[in-house]
Specification:
Layout (H helix, E strand, L loop, with lengths): L1 H13 L8 H11 L7 E8 L11 E5 L10 E4 L2 H9 L4 E3 L1 H8 L7 E4 L4 H4 L3 H4 L17 H9 L2 E5 L5 E8 L4 H17 L10 E8 L5 E2 L2 H4 L3
Parallel strand pairs: 3-4, 3-5
Antiparallel strand pairs: 1-7, 1-8, 2-6, 8-9
Helix pairs in contact: 2-8
Length: about 230
């Protein structure tokens, strides 16, 4: 434990808590601090000027990370017949209908993304209380309820990141791995920030993007200079 505490202290000493770092500088600092024994995920957190308790201030969407997420994503698809075959051909890990519902009801959820064809939603609806709290419920707004299951599977496997604002007005997501090049991370981060900015809801008043920070799984948070994050 003392060793972990020492490592965290050393990381914190490298970060100026009062400084807002330019994006390129922040990426270098976060990568240099990602010295755990595994390939740490680089994460962004954005504080937004919204109150998601109001429907017209809800922020959600999906961003296709141009350089991928670096994560192996297991995808489950609810589909029948030809659509089930298309999903399997596109690389879905689990494909089913009633059998998949039963599996999930029995507590077996070994997937990271869930996709469904529109005709399957009455069936999938039974799983709302299980999948909803885990953020796995298929939704047409983020492209996970679609007749084009092949494209949805490929997008999920290729680095599509869903985002949804939390109670405190924070949106966060993994935007790559510490092993990525600086350039690839910067491209992913900018793409994600752009997607969040485009998802600005009609009810958002005043400053929409208030603060943002970058971190890695076991590294400290680095505050970002917002002007380097989004093109004004």
């Amino acid at each position: 434990m003392a060793k972990a505490g020492k490592r965290i202290r050393a990381i914190r000493e490298k970060i100026d808590r009062n400084k807002h770092y330019e994006l390129g500088e922040a990426v270098k600092l976060v990568k240099s601090n990602a010295n755990a024994k595994f390939d740490e995920t680089v994460e962004i957190a954005m504080n937004l000027g919204v109150d998601p308790r109001h429907a017209d201030q809800m922020v959600r969407g999906v961003c296709q990370l141009p350089k991928g997420s670096g994560k192996t994503v297991r995808v489950a698809v609810f589909a029948r017949g030809d659509k089930a075959d298309e999903a399997k051909a596109a690389g879905a890990d689990i494909v089913g209908a009633e059998d998949l519902v039963e599996q999930i009801q029995n507590g077996k959820i070994d997937f990271d993304r869930c996709i469904a064809t529109p005709d399957m939603m009455p069936l999938v609806g039974r799983l709302g209380k299980i999948l909803g709290p885990r953020g796995l419920m298929p939704n047409p707004k983020v492209g996970t309820v679609t007749p084009d299951v092949a494209a949805a599977v490929k997008a999920a496997k290729g680095g599509a990141v869903e985002f949804r604002v939390e109670k405190a007005g924070i949106v966060h997501a993994g935007v790559g791995k510490a092993s990525f090049s600086d350039e690839d991370l910067i491209e992913n981060i900018k793409a994600f920030a752009d997607a969040v900015m485009k998802a600005k809801p009609s009810g958002a008043k005043g400053t929409y993007l208030k603060r943002a920070a970058l971190s890695s799984t076991q590294g400290g948070g680095v505050k970002l200079d917002l002007s380097s994050l989004v093109d004004s």
